[in-house]
Amino acid sequence: MGRYILKRLALMLPTLFLILLANFIIVQTAPGGPVEQQISLIEQANKGDATAVAPSSTPTMGNGGKYQGSRGLSEEMVKAIEAQYGFDKPAPERFWLMLKNYAHLDFGESFFKGEPVIDLILAKLPVSISLGLWSTLLIYLIAIPLGIYKAIHNGSTMDKATAFLLAVGHAIPVFVFGVILLVFFAGGSYWQIFPLQGLVSENFEQLSFLGKVKDYFWHLALPLLASTIGGFAGLAYLTKFSFLEELGKQYVLTARAKGLSENQVLYGHVFRNAMLIIIAGIPAAVVGIFFAANFIIEIIFNLDGLGLLGFEAIVQRDYPVIFGTLFIFTVVGLVLQLISDLSYHLVDPRIDFESR
């Protein structure tokens, strides 16, 4: 298993390189980059308030590499703006410098916030980890027992009733649940029970320990509820059908014929085999919960985490923040995939990736 781990770790480097390269090409060719935005801001400031209200288009690259719409700026000023954001160098050189800096965990400085990207990520990370861990824990604590129950009582009234609720939860997007919860329980049109935004209150530091815990979960209640409702339906169905498939196999009939109880059959034989497919989906589920579903939740509930940071960076074309968060997300996803493969072996020692 040691050789397999080393091989997987070695494969992470070219995978990470290709992901960064593909995204670098896409981002660099997209219109409305930081240079164009800065030129537009300077032009609007030069025109004054009278003309600033008139519609104006974002400068774009024209023939010969000149910025259209930047006729009010001198060529020296445009070159100074390009140098400020590092665009005075050709794209291959910029990509190579980025890789060299990333090798030392130097993600550069945000174009628009004026802070090191690593400091921004570390500042936002606790919020995303907090929301991601609690939502993942709740989803698995609800989905797996519910899936097992539905498999054991397949076709019962309870199975059919929960199937309808799961179908509704799976069909409605997470952001719709978030908006509904805000409207009904955060002072939108009905009750002001929970706070509208943020993870803690303004007087959080003055509260006692129990007061801080209560305030924290009071703010986290609606985001967690929205994330959990939208996330556990698929896992519950996966668990159910995985157990149903195992329950119909010959070794289950043999175990029952030997006189083993249902609990012994279920948790001594079926559980280990049925959980393999669920373990396989853990990395994708965790990455999806952390960086996809909770990305939307952070925006809706104005939680100052990595999701909101990444969204603002995309809107502002803040390339160092975009690639810094992309690097973190990719590394986490690759490590989780490796952990998933190792979990296969722990659950069933017969699975040996090193021999393949």
Write the layout of secondary structure elements.
Elements (H helix, E strand, L loop, with lengths): L1 H28 L4 H14 L1 H4 L7 E2 L5 E2 L6 H10 L6 H13 L13 H36 L4 H15 L2 H12 L23 H21 L2 H16 L2 H8 L4 H19 L1 H19 L5 H11 L2 H29 L9
Antiparallel strand pairs: 1-2
Helix pairs in contact: 1-15, 6-9, 6-10, 6-13, 6-15, 7-10, 8-9, 8-13, 10-12, 11-12, 12-15, 13-14, 13-15, 14-15
Strand and helix order? HHHEEHHHHHHHHHHHH
Tell me what portion of residues adopts beta-strand conformation.
Answer: under 5%
Briefly note the structural class of the backbone: mainly alpha
Question: Which stretches are poorly predicted, pLDDT < 50 over at least 5 residues?
Answer: 49-71
Shape: globular
Report the major sheet. Answer: 2 strands, antiparallel
List keywords for this structure.
356 residues; mainly alpha; two-stranded antiparallel ribbon; 72% helix; 1% strand; globular
What does this molecule look like?
The chain is mostly helical and 356 residues long. The protein is built from 15 helices and two strands. A two-stranded antiparallel ribbon has the order 1-2. It is globular, with a radius of gyration of 26 Å. About 6% of the residues have low confidence.
